[in-house]
């Protein structure tokens, strides 16, 4: 990625990365490899499809024109996605969100998605 992400961009990208990693592992995707999304961020273990999706999501977040005023990703982030990725992110958020609730990670969800 060319531009340095802002703190908020980094935070949001880490959130979607966390959801995607939970999804990828939980769905037992194969050929998972270490994938470095942002510099300074620990590598994620992702299959090629999830890595490609996450790159797409991160790029969208980096290019989001509503940065300063954007309240939560639920309200607007997904609306700039192409239909296919949009369907996928909804699936990932719903599935991984449920997992995180089961693991007591409500704080995480609460903050960003409700
Ligand atoms: Zn995957």
How large is the radius of gyration?
13 Å
General shape: globular
Tally of DSSP β-strands? 2
Main sheet makeup: 2 strands, antiparallel
Small molecules in complex: zinc ion
Structural class: mainly alpha
Poorly predicted spans: none
* Portion in beta strands: 5-15%
Mean pLDDT comes to: 82
User: What number of structural domains do the residues give?
Assistant: 1
The end-to-end span amounts to 29 Å
Order of helices and strands: HEEHHHH
Total helix count?
5
**Helix amount, in percent?**
55-70%
Largest sheet: spatial strand order: 1-2
Protein name: Nitrous oxide-stimulated promoter family protein
Model description:
The model has no long low-confidence stretch (mean pLDDT 82). The chain has one domain. Strands 1-2 form a two-stranded antiparallel ribbon. It is mainly alpha-helical. The radius of gyration is 13 Å and the shape is globular. A hairpin with an 8-residue loop joins strand 1 and strand 2. Helix 1 runs antiparallel to helix 2 and helix 1 crosses helix 4. The termini are far apart. The chain contains 5 helices and 2 strands, in the order αββαααα. Zinc ion binds next to helix 2. This is Nitrous oxide-stimulated promoter family protein. Pfam families: YgbA_NO.
């Amino acid at each position: 990625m060319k531009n340095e992400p802002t703190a908020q961009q980094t935070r949001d990208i880490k959130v979607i990365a966390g959801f995607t990693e939970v999804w990828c592992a939980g769905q037992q995707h194969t050929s998972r490899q270490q994938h470095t999304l942002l510099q300074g961020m620990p590598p994620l273990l992702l299959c090629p499809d999830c890595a490609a999706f996450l790159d797409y999501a991160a790029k969208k977040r980096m290019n989001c024109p509503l940065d300063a005023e954007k309240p939560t990703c639920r309200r607007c982030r997904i609306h700039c996605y192409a239909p296919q990725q949009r369907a996928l992110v909804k699936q990932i958020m719903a599935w991984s969100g449920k997992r995180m609730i089961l693991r007591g990670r409500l704080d995480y969800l609460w903050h960003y998605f409700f």
